[in-house]
From TrEMBL, chain A:
<dbReference type="Pfam" id="PF13416">
    <property type="entry name" value="SBP_bac_8"/>
</dbReference>
<protein>
    <submittedName>
        <fullName>Lactose-binding protein</fullName>
    </submittedName>
</protein>
<dbReference type="InterPro" id="IPR006059">
    <property type="entry name" value="SBP"/>
</dbReference>
<keyword id="KW-0732">Signal</keyword>
<feature type="signal peptide">
    <location>
        <begin position="1"/>
        <end position="25"/>
    </location>
</feature>
<dbReference type="InterPro" id="IPR050490">
    <property type="entry name" value="Bact_solute-bd_prot1"/>
</dbReference>
From TrEMBL, chain B:
<keyword id="KW-1003">Cell membrane</keyword>
<keyword id="KW-0472">Membrane</keyword>
<dbReference type="Pfam" id="PF00528">
    <property type="entry name" value="BPD_transp_1"/>
</dbReference>
<feature type="transmembrane region" description="Helical">
    <location>
        <begin position="151"/>
        <end position="170"/>
    </location>
</feature>
<feature type="transmembrane region" description="Helical">
    <location>
        <begin position="71"/>
        <end position="94"/>
    </location>
</feature>
<feature type="domain" description="ABC transmembrane type-1">
    <location>
        <begin position="72"/>
        <end position="287"/>
    </location>
</feature>
<protein>
    <submittedName>
        <fullName>Lactose ABC transporter membrane protein</fullName>
    </submittedName>
</protein>
Automatic annotation (TrEMBL), chain C:
<feature type="transmembrane region" description="Helical">
    <location>
        <begin position="246"/>
        <end position="266"/>
    </location>
</feature>
<keyword id="KW-0812">Transmembrane</keyword>
<feature type="transmembrane region" description="Helical">
    <location>
        <begin position="107"/>
        <end position="126"/>
    </location>
</feature>
<dbReference type="GO" id="GO:0005886">
    <property type="term" value="C:plasma membrane"/>
</dbReference>
<feature type="domain" description="ABC transmembrane type-1">
    <location>
        <begin position="70"/>
        <end position="267"/>
    </location>
</feature>
<feature type="transmembrane region" description="Helical">
    <location>
        <begin position="74"/>
        <end position="95"/>
    </location>
</feature>
<keyword id="KW-0813">Transport</keyword>
């Protein structure tokens, strides 16, 4: 009998200790109940130089009118946000989830389809017409609006005027660029200045995505079906990408930090990506005045391709079961969904290219940028934003892209494009069929 | 007398289960029950929690899935190359350190074991910066004129795999060494002395005394390392993040991606995970057989 | 000593010295990095700087909640270790001392669990624990609770095996003597076995604490809210952030490595002795 008793005591002790641990560490978590008196909002975003700054400024503006509201802005790596949303929403455990979360456009449809009931409808907060046309498709499901578009992902060619001129070209040559011309200039830059034209990350084929969208195409077609094998725009994009690699004018990087380091240290002459890279470029203050911005290069070999595309860009979404749906909607309504003053300030602080149509009325929008040699970059970005071909990103961009990086590496390595893409069409179909 | 003794024993025997039941319950609940669950899940497809029965569809998909094949290839590659290197290295080091006349034994032992106190995430991050293209290792190699251009440790598919192997070997060699050292200490010195008198050199002594006596421990560490390598996750995620273009991805990371990176696909992820189970069972069986044969 | 033996000795010293340097260098590098500014770290400086306290301040001030994560890690590792010592050692002890056919069978089943990789358990465990969260009595161990991380590490085949092996070196006479003195079976375990097997427990503590302290994958899945994160999760997040501050990151790594290093150095002797016990059987 004694054994049992002691064991019982031991088990009880164990339980007690467990309870102590859990209750101790449970402090400070958000309760999943809509409690009107609890005015605490949590916001998740990922870039401390960009969208975190925006969230903090929105918080300041909101708190001026609502001093009793508490807003926690949390920086979380984008991969972690994705994983946490997937784990929490699929298990319906809301403990620790944010009320407002920034979601990249490519991922939005996936969440909205898989977890429609978890997101709050925002039709009473804003109207799709308030935002740039190409952005609004990604935020909607069944004709209802679930996200407030945030930044434009409009693509641009950021380039070093000093290198380009040293290589014997003018800023004129950078306008209405094609990838063929871009490679030609890149070779001259490499020869004359000894620097690479741009960076490439073998695990991230954003360039191909941009090229495809410039021709109005995507990995998936309008119905959401995988379109790789017979996708001419994709084939052309891969061809251009291979030409770029073969030209030997690119610097390989492995992550974001090296990518930013390359242009901040003057190791590359241009950066072709979304306009959200501007604040990172401007971090190198010693390069002020040496940069300019041109439109995205189009693909000469593809007739549909134009000098405008997009990459990244994101929107704010409200998780309605976390417990502060009304407060979160109110927050968005008074900030990102229509506050021109906020946009005006963000233009200055983080060079935000807003997708809010009325933001173009903001006075800072028409200011020239000293860093970019006085160029009115926001005017340019806004104009290009209007031209970006609208495509259906579908639900599986990253699932397909992870597979496509392998295909692209194989093709760049010399494999036959048609047979590789044929294989990967089947791969991708299997990956998205669930 | 006999009867009462046996009844005491029987009572003892029954009661002694109380020592075991908590462990058994936990292991059944958190290993075997989930295993069975995983099997049923692997027969289903669907998004997130909306699963429906689909028979062997997930297993059929495995056959054509190139990322899975890549992950499987990488995992097996790490296993086949890294585990033998590490085991041999650990054996050599421990037999050197077992020499009682050696000075600074304590220092060497501590230094070589030191990597084991780092967390996998922490050392991965250290390695990532040491092996960056413009990082310390390339600088040293270039200063020594071993290479003329920096090696793209992280973006080149071959070197990225080499880097992963270097990293794991750094982290785990000392750990295995401790097991061998413990084993060696229980071998009587007089055996080695007798061998020396018979004119055996160091290698012969190693081959005919050390290896056979350490065999059970070598078997144990090999199985342990095999299991560890087949589950490799922290290093590839934090050093190369599976890149470039999935060139270093492991099965565990692929499962994680299927679960949490894309739209969760519980069924297919479970099917992939069963491949590791089968692999481990087969490999452990082979290793035990090999271990027995030499007996 | 013959010339040949001297030469081979010298070779041994050279090899061991090189290996020691290779093993220790990343530590030195990490410590030096922790005392430097981020820019200098990326430049690969090898000179200790004076920036450690600034890095520390930046680390504590950042919204990563480093101290909180340290506390989370510590609580999880300590509770896991204590519980694992009780639960797993009791099982390992009983399997050896009260040998029977049934127990040997049970032991083999437990050993089988060593072959099940965690990756295979990820899906069902995640689904299982997410259900726990909705059952009032099991909320303690539901997702996003430290209990979820503790409970699956308490009983491991490795530890049970380890304790069983070591129990083989435990003198049976002590058990008989204690029985004659009228001590109950559980008393024998706690009052005779535990104090006698100190070095075994020390080795087990080192291994269990380190495993728990360094655990990454399951906490990554199970702990969702930022307040619950453990050190490896924070450090991984720092590494993948957009603009990593290397000085601050290495400071975080140094501090995160201290407890395991400390435990190892304090228990090194017992650790090696305990390991020896496990391989004798």
């Amino acid at each position: 009998m004694k054994v049992k008793k002691v064991l019982a005591v031991m088990m009880a002790g164990t339980m007690a200790m467990g309870i102590a641990v859990c209750s101790d560490a449970g402090l400070g978590t958000v309760k999943a109940a809509d409690d009107a008196s609890d005015k605490t909002l949590t916001i998740w975003a990922w870039d401390e130089a960009f969208n975190i700054v925006a969230a903090n400024e929105a918080k300041e503006i909101y708190q001026k009118e609502n001093p009793d509201a508490e807003v926690n802005v949390v920086t979380m790596a984008q991969d972690d946000i994705v994983a946490k949303l997937n784990t929490s929403l699929s298990s319906q455990s809301y403990d620790g989830l944010p009320d407002i979360v920034l979601i990249e456009d490519y991922k939005a449809q996936g969440y909205l389809t898989a977890y429609t009931d978890e997101f709050a409808e925002l039709d009473d907060v804003a109207k799709p017409d308030d935002f740039a046309a190409y952005k609004t498709g990604v935020n909607q499901a069944d004709g209802k609006m679930y996200g407030i578009p945030f930044d434009s992902g409009v693509a641009a060619t950021f380039y070093r005027t000093d290198y380009i001129e040293e290589a014997g070209y003018t800023q004129e040559d950078m306008q209405d660029l094609t990838w063929e011309k871009y490679i030609e200039i890149g070779k001259a830059v490499k020869e004359k200045c000894g620097v690479d034209m741009c960076t490439l990350d073998p695990s991230d084929i954003g360039q191909i995505r941009m090229m495809m969208q410039s021709a109005g195409s995507w990995y998936t077609d309008a119905e959401g079906k995988v379109s790789i094998e017979d996708n001419q725009a994709l084939k052309d994009a891969v061809t251009e990408y291979k030409n770029l690699v073969d030209a030997g004018i690119t610097k390989q990087v492995a992550d974001w930090d090296q990518f930013v380091g390359a242009f901040n240290n003057g190791e590359v002459a241009s950066v072709v990506t979304g306009c959200w890279i501007a604040p990172s470029i401007q971090k190198a203050e010693d390069q002020s005045g040496k940069w300019a911005v041109a439109p995205f290069p189009k693909m000469e070999i593809n007739d549909a391709s134009i000098n405008a595309s997009s990459i990244g860009g994101a929107g704010w979404y409200v998780l309605k079961n976390v417990g502060h749906e009304e407060l979160a909607k109110d927050f968005l309504a008074k900030t990102f969904a229509g506050n021109v003053d906020l946009m005006n300030q963000l233009v200055k602080d983080i060079t935000l290219v807003s997708t809010l149509n009325t933001a173009s009325e903001a006075p800072n929008y028409s200011e020239g940028s000293e860093f970019f040699g006085g160029q009115k970059i926001f005017d340019d970005f806004s104009n290009w934003t209007k031209e970006v071909p609208s495509v259906n990103y579908g639900m599986h961009t990253y699932a397909i892209e992870d597979i496509m990086t392998e295909a692209v590496q194989a093709i760049v390595g010399g494999a036959d494009m048609d047979s590789v893409l044929g294989d990967y069409q089947i791969q991708a179909e299997a990956a998205v069929a669930q | 007398m006999y009867k009462s003794h046996s009844s005491v024993q029987m009572r003892q025997n029954r009661r002694s289960w109380l020592f075991i039941i908590p462990s058994m319950a936990l292991i059944i609940a958190f290993v075997f029950y989930p295993m069975v669950q995983a099997f049923f899940t692997s027969l289903q497809t669907g998004m997130a929690n909306n699963l429906s029965f689909s028979g062997a569809a997930n297993y059929e998909r495995l056959l054509t899935d190139s990322t899975f094949k890549k992950a499987l290839f990488n995992t097996v590659l790490y296993l086949v190359i890294q585990v033998p290197i590490m085991i041999i290295l650990a054996l050599v080091i421990s037999s050197m350190l077992n020499n009682k006349k050696l000075k600074f034994r304590g220092f060497f032992r501590t230094a070589i074991f030191l990597p084991c106190v780092t967390s996998l995430v922490a050392y991965s991050i250290i390695f990532k910066s040491l092996f960056a293209t413009d990082g310390f290792v390339n600088a040293i190699l270039m200063n020594l004129h071993i290479i003329s251009n920096p090696i793209a440790w992280i973006t080149d598919p071959v070197f990225a795999r080499v880097l992963i192997i270097i990293a794991i070997t750094w982290r785990w060699t000392g750990y295995n060494m401790v097991f061998y050292l413990s084993g060696l200490q229980s071998i009587d010195d007089s055996i080695y002395e007798a061998a020396s008198i018979d004119g055996a050199n160091g290698f012969q002594k190693f081959k005919s005394i050390t290896l056979p006596l350490l065999k059970p421990i070598i078997l144990f560490t090999t199985i342990n390392s095999t299991i560890g390598t087949l589950q490799l996750f922290d290093e590839t995620v934090n050093i190369t993040n599976g890149g470039p273009a999935n060139a270093t991805i492991t099965i565990s990371q692929y499962i994680y991606n299927l679960l949490f990176k894309y739209q969760p696909n519980f069924g297919y992820a479970a099917a992939v995970s069963y491949v590791i189970v089968v692999l481990i069972v087969i490999l452990s069986f082979i290793q035990m057989k090999v271990g027995d044969d030499k007996e | 000593m013959s010339k040949k033996a001297k030469a081979s000795n010298a070779v041994q010293y050279v090899i061991l010295t090189i290996l020691s340097v290779v093993s220790v260098f990343p530590f030195l590098w990490m410590i030096i990095a922790a005392t430097n500014k981020s820019v200098d770290v990326t430049k690969g400086t090898l000179i200790p700087g004076t920036y450690f306290f600034e890095n520390l301040k930046a680390l504590l001030a950042s919204d990563l909640q480093y101290l909180n994560a340290f506390k989370n890690s510590l609580v999880i590792a300590v509770v896991t270790t204590v519980l694992a010592m009780l639960v797993s050692s009791a099982a390992g002890y009983a399997f050896e001392v009260y040998k029977s056919k049934g127990k040997d069978r049970a032991f083999n089943i437990i050993l089988l669990s060593m072959m099940v990789p965690f990756a295979a358990l990820m899906v069902p465990l995640f689904r299982l624990f997410s259900k726990f969260g909705n059952i009032p009595g099991l909320k303690l161990v539901g997702l996003n609770s430290p209990g979820a991380v503790v409970i699956i590490a308490v009983a491991t085949a490795f530890l049970i095996f380890f304790f069983r092996q070591n129990t083989k070196t435990f003198p049976r006479e002590l058990i008989e003597a204690a029985r004659i003195d009228g001590l109950g079976e559980f008393g024998i375990f706690t009052r005779i076995f535990m104090p006698t097997m100190k070095s075994t427990y020390a080795a087990a503590v080192v291994v269990t604490f380190m495993t728990s302290w360094n655990n990454y994958l399951w906490p990554l899945i199970a702990l969702q809210s930022p307040q619950k994160r453990t050190l490896p999760l924070i450090i991984s997040a720092m590494g993948s952030s957009y603009t990593p501050d290397y000085g601050m990151m290495m400071t975080a790594v140094v501090i995160a490595t201290l407890p395991t290093a400390l435990i190892f150095f304090l228990m090194q002797k017992q650790f090696v002795a305990g390991m020896t016990g496990s391989v004798k059987g």
